[in-house]
Amino acid sequence: MSGRSRVARPVEVGAADLRSTLPLVGVSVPERDERDEQDERAAPKRKARPAFVLIIVVTVVLRLGREVIGRVAFDRYGGWAILALVIIGAAIALSWRAWRRWRVRRRGGAELTPEDVRDYLHAAGMTELPFDGDGTLLGTPVMLVSQRPKVIEVETAYDVFGPDGQLLGTVSQIAQSRGKAVARVLTGFDQFFTHHFDIADAGGTVVLRLTRPRKIFLTKLHVFTGDDRFVGTIRQHNVFGKIRFGLTDAAGITVGELRAQNLRAWDFRVLDANGATIATIFKSWEGWAQTALTRADRYGVRIERPLEGSLRDLTVASALAVDLALKQDARGIG
What we know:
CATH architecture of the largest domain: Beta Barrel
Strand order of the largest sheet: 1-2-3-4-5-6-7-8-9-10-11-12
Radius of gyration: 26 Å
CATH topology of the largest domain: Porin
Order of helices and strands: HHHHHEEEHEEEEEEEEHEH
Low-confidence stretches: 1-25, 27-45, 329-334
Structural class: alpha+beta
């Protein structure tokens, strides 16, 4: 033999070899449940939305193009050119709306079928129920909130669907005078008006009422029960950065927070007073046509655990009113 000592080469041990070897030395290794692997493979992935930068670029290009075409046409043909452009734009919008109405009639009068609702919830990653709900608007664990698309919106309205695709309730604007409706369509002064909304279940019984007072920058929403008992307030804290709302009960005590997950304020989380997530809100992509021609939004809501009392009412109101709080002012022709 040579006087040199032999150096042992390192041996690569795979995960499967390690799992089979450890029990021999008295170390127990828990087996991976096959159901976990199946759940991971079957877990729905959220449908990709266009990058926010892309949406901004497209919006800027369209607006600049509209301004350039309008100015060139006005310099060459005068006011008749502007009138023609307005008529063309109105014709495109009304044609799109007529097509939507025709499709609704083919579906038996439903804007969204139960299959559509389930598809949207699947795209939002909300197919699994965190708990067994009671099938009501205030007790469901998952819901889809869909604004009714209108080319010119005078009164805001939403439909709320459950995880099975059935209608759970509606959100309707009420007590709007004719003068306010005209001003809302023709001007941009919507934020200076006070708005009232009823949240009703599928049977038409009002379960919550919302009042959004006039505002300049920061929004607040007062929440009442169906019999007009004051529940609390959803109050916006900031204008810049990730938007945050505080949830306070009737006594003024902070019971939670509604917090945007990104600067574009598409996705939100509702937190309790301890900072634990109790609900998530995920905005769906409606498509380029609906985004360009209307301001109708659609988003999924997932409530993580059963809630009671004012926290339940404020959480549901937050999920249903986040669009009202942030985008209610951008309506009408402009």
